[in-house]
Design brief:
The complex is a heterodimer of chains A (about 200) and B (about 600).
Chain A lengths: L4 H4 L17 H10 L4 H20 L2 H18 L8 H19 L19 H19 L3 H11 L4 H8 L3 H18 L13
Helix pairs in contact in A: 2-3, 3-4, 3-5, 4-5, 5-8, 7-9, 8-9
Chain B lengths: L4 H18 L11 H13 L7 H18 L34 H16 L6 E9 L23 E5 L2 E11 L2 E10 L7 H5 L8 E10 L7 E3 L11 E8 L7 E12 L6 E11 L1 H8 L8 H9 L3 E10 L8 E10 L3 E9 L4 E6 L10 E3 L15 E8 L7 E8 L20 E5 L12 E9 L2 E9 L4 E10 L10 H6 L6 E4 L2 E2 L2 E4 L9 E7 L6 E12 L5 E13 L21
Parallel strand pairs in B: 1-5
Antiparallel strand pairs in B: 1-8, 2-3, 3-4, 4-7, 6-7, 8-9, 10-11, 11-12, 12-15, 13-16, 14-15, 16-17, 18-19, 19-20, 20-24, 21-22, 21-25, 23-24, 25-26
Helix pairs in contact in B: 1-2
The chains are: A mainly alpha (about 200), B alpha+beta (about 600).
Chain lengths: ~200, ~600
């Protein structure tokens, strides 16, 4: 749910009865938040989960993902007055993308995502933790089969961005994103051993 | 020539499908490959990245509320928290000064103000032409760490990233040929620290479009020389990337430190340049990072190319294409040099200036893009002169083509963002996506022998490796290997390096003691199949083939492979396909990888 505990503590700003589930015009929300930063609560509630999950996928650790998520929203709040109309989501994920890049810089090479140990939520039972670890490892194993560029695109897809938004985040053309994700899907298909109707385009 | 609808359709269909999927919608699309759609759905189904801990959400919400109250002029005065390292989420307070761009140091105020003023004065088409002053600090040895803090340890992994003055500069690539070291940097603007940049073009926090030139590669005379600056004083900037050549004067295994001390922006048109001072420091061992980044050169497939050329299966193209339209960044030329086709592999050679100009995509006769088997890079980089100027020659390996094929097409997909503008123009420039049509005659492939079943096996450390099939090509023969875990308790992990870098095992091959080049093998990426092909160049028709495999990527469960240690020695009688009784003497030659 978008209205969760995170929003409960964002007191002091009237939301006018709107719920995030409504098809509220996001640009109007952003414009409102630009005029009064306290309205940022709505945007935080909407994007806390996807941004955190994006950071988690990239960084592979709960603590690092939480730190990065904090930075993303603090930076976004600070930079909001300079936001110009467009896609708030791609703007926010561009910040997230750069925050994660900064995290890479701070880490030793052996702590990069591909080699980090699997995080286990301490609240899970051992069985749940095992299931979670295996399932997530397989997702990471799939992503590891992609080139870095393909992986960036796919991780932003998993974050819920559309192709045009991904292009803006990565500073690439939409066509380039399309080509990257097409190749990524081909690799994923091969990795998943799915049947293909593409007789002439076998992958090895 | 622009990309036509038919050629674009498979990629567009997947894009539409994925857009719908992330929007929570579904839809049928005749142009969509159902297997690709299934792969995408499966990926999303498996994604179980957790939601944030509710307590964390609440704490961050509190902090944001406090921040918002301050910025919104609330009477409520939250507690002050000094926030080193950002680990103070339980505390409430305004941001530390470093978080506030308007409180940045005086050295940055001028250029930010300039940018702001510039944005105000200019229309939406304002474009910066950027010139970066790059000062290479020349240090030798590892004992001088006190002068500049190293940004990486001795085991360097790219990218190396440094942030200062609102710009993040990443060293994303390096190529080493003797003493010639070519470095590739990528520049990005910090969206918070350089908020004014967002004003310029509506690209949000992205770095606005500009053309960047690197200059000022100067030797610090006060330090022992270890790197000599390149002679080129200016390098066209491709996208946000710049390639900088330097020349090593010491050993490539010695640590090198480079500091970029300024980014200089030339405002367009004709105004005084503005310099952004900073310190972007990079410390690395050239041999380490270059070895990791550089792909195999043309020499790896040269033996096969020579044979294919004799057989009339190398088709010279020599067509030059402009890519990227009017956009100065990631615009340039791609020359398609040649196409070489064998039974199971197709090589395309091309020259790109700048190197990362476009994705090069081979389309089959139905217009479907073929997946890449492998990518060979930087052959020309290794041979470039001191000026280090592009272009670079690359080659890509694709799957084989139907012998009945009469023409193939190559799509050049620019990496440029079409919304970028170039000085003196307006936004929304067209981006050219050329398509080349190459006539081919693949009749020499029609008479190749049927695939030959093999019956050879080697066992080591709980793993069987079987030679399954040999498919002879004109020059490139494909030997299919299959691995099976017999005893999980006997498995020995291979070198961690293999895991970390996804490298391929150095397989060697000989026939009757004479080396046979291993010019390619399937890597762990994109391949979860049980059988893995090994590509051998100019394999003799008779004799005893001996393959030495030190370690191997072995499928250990449904979805994963692990590098496991052998060694395995396979001996195969090439006439019968059976295991040879007496292995022949071995004269191994390290195999490359295409």
């Amino acid at each position: 749910m978008l209205w969760s505990k995170g929003l409960d503590v964002l007191r002091g700003y009237p939301i006018d009865g709107a719920t995030p589930q409504d098809a509220v015009d996001e640009e109007a929300l952003v414009e409102r938040a630009r005029r009064d930063p306290r309205a940022f609560a709505v945007l935080y509630a909407r994007y806390a989960d996807p941004v955190y999950r994006f950071c988690y996928r990239r960084l592979g650790e709960v603590e690092a993902a939480e730190d990065a998520t904090s930075q993303v929203f603090l930076k976004a709040l600070a930079a909001l007055p300079r936001y110009r109309a467009g896609s708030f989501r791609s703007w926010l994920f561009t910040i997230a993308y750069h925050v994660v890049a900064d995290r890479y810089r701070e880490r030793r090479p052996d702590r990069l995502p591909d080699t980090t140990p699997e995080p286990i939520d301490p609240g899970l039972t051992p069985e749940e933790a095992l299931l979670h670890s295996e399932a997530h490892r397989s997702v990471r194993a799939l992503l590891a089969r992609l080139s870095p560029e393909q992986r960036e695109v796919v991780e932003l897809r998993l974050a819920g961005l559309n192709g045009a938004e991904i292009a803006r985040v990565l500073g690439r053309s939409h066509g380039s994103v399309r080509a990257l994700q097409y190749r990524a899907a081909q690799r994923l298909r091969a990795a998943l051993d799915l049947d293909t109707e593409r007789g002439g385009a076998g992958c090895d | 020539m622009r990309l036509n609808q038919r050629e674009r359709e498979p990629m567009d269909a997947l894009d539409r499908y994925w857009d719908a999927l992330v929007a929570g919608e579904t839809g049928d699309d005749d142009a969509l490959d159902p297997a690709l759609a299934a792969a995408v759905r499966e990926l999303h189904a498996r994604d179980d990245a957790p939601a944030p801990d509710p307590a964390f959400r609440a704490r961050l919400g509190q902090r944001l509320a406090a921040e918002a109250a301050v910025r919104g002029g609330s009477d409520a005065v939250p507690l002050r928290a000094d926030a080193p390292g950002g680990h103070d989420l339980l505390m409430i307070g305004p941001p530390a000064e470093a978080d506030q761009p308007e409180l940045a140091g005086p050295a940055q105020g001028g250029w930010r103000r300039w940018l702001r003023e510039g944005a105000g004065m200019a229309a939406a088409a304002v474009v910066l032409v950027a010139v970066a002053g790059l000062l290479v600090v020349l240090l030798q040895g590892r004992g001088e760490g006190e002068r500049t803090a190293p940004s990486a340890g001795p085991e360097t992994t790219l990218p190396l990233v440094a942030t200062d003055s609102g710009f993040t500069i990443s060293l994303i690539g390096a190529d080493l040929a003797g003493s010639a070291l070519t470095l590739t940097f990528e520049v990005a603007a910090d969206p918070q620290a350089t908020p004014d940049l967002a004003v310029l073009d509506g690209l949000g926090p992205s770095l606005p479009p500009f053309t960047m030139r690197l200059s000022g590669l100067e030797r610090d005379a006060s330090q022992p020389g270890h790197v000599e600056p390149g002679t080129a004083q200016a390098q066209p900037f491709a996208g946000y990337r710049a390639t900088v050549p330097v020349r090593l004067t010491g050993d490539a295994t010695d640590e090198v430190r480079i500091t970029i001390t300024a980014l200089r922006f030339d405002r367009h048109p004709g105004d005084e340049p503005q310099e952004v001072p900073g310190e972007w420091r990079f410390t690395f061992v050239p041999a380490e990072i270059a070895a990791e980044e550089a792909g195999p050169g043309l020499e790896v497939i040269e033996p096969a190319l020579a044979t294919l050329r004799e057989a009339g299966l190398v088709f010279d193209i020599g067509q030059r294409f402009e890519v990227g339209g009017d956009a100065a960044w990631r615009s340039g030329e791609v020359t398609l040099d040649w196409l070489a086709v064998d039974r199971d592999v197709t090589y395309l050679g091309f020259t790109a200036d700048p190197p990362e100009l476009a994705d090069v995509i081979l389309l089959d006769e139905r217009g479907f893009p073929l997946d890449e088997l492998a990518d060979g890079r930087l052959a020309a980089f290794r041979e470039r002169d001191a000026s280090g100027s592009p272009p670079s020659t690359r080659w890509i390996a694709f799957p084989g083509l139907d012998p009945a094929t009469r023409e193939v097409r190559v799509l050049l997909m620019p990496t440029a963002d079409p919304s970028m503008v170039t000085p003196g123009t307006t936004a929304g420039q067209s981006v050219k996506t050329p398509v080349a049509t190459i006539p081919v005659d693949l009749s020499p492939l029609a008479d190749l022998p049927a695939p030959q079943p093999l019956r050879a096996r080697a066992t080591a450390n709980g793993i069987d490796i079987d030679a399954v099939e040999l498919r002879r090509g004109v020059a490139v023969s494909t030997l299919t290997l299959s691995a099976q875990v017999l005893d999980p308790s006997a498995l020995i992990p291979a070198d961690d390096l293999a895991v970390e870098h996804q490298i391929l095992p150095p397989i060697t091959a000989t026939v009757d003691g004479v080396s046979v080049p291993v010019i390619g093998q399937s890597g762990p990426r994109g391949s979860a199949a049980d059988a893995v092909p090994i590509r051998l160049a100019n394999l003799p028709e008779r004799g005893t083939l001996r393959l030495s495999i030190p370690w191997w990527w072995v499928k250990i469960n449904e979805n994963e492979r692990e590098p496991l240690r052998g060694p395995w020695e396979l001996t195969i009688d090439l006439e019968t396909g059976a295991s040879a009784v007496s292995p022949m003497p071995n004269a191994p030659v390290p195999g490359g990888g295409d």
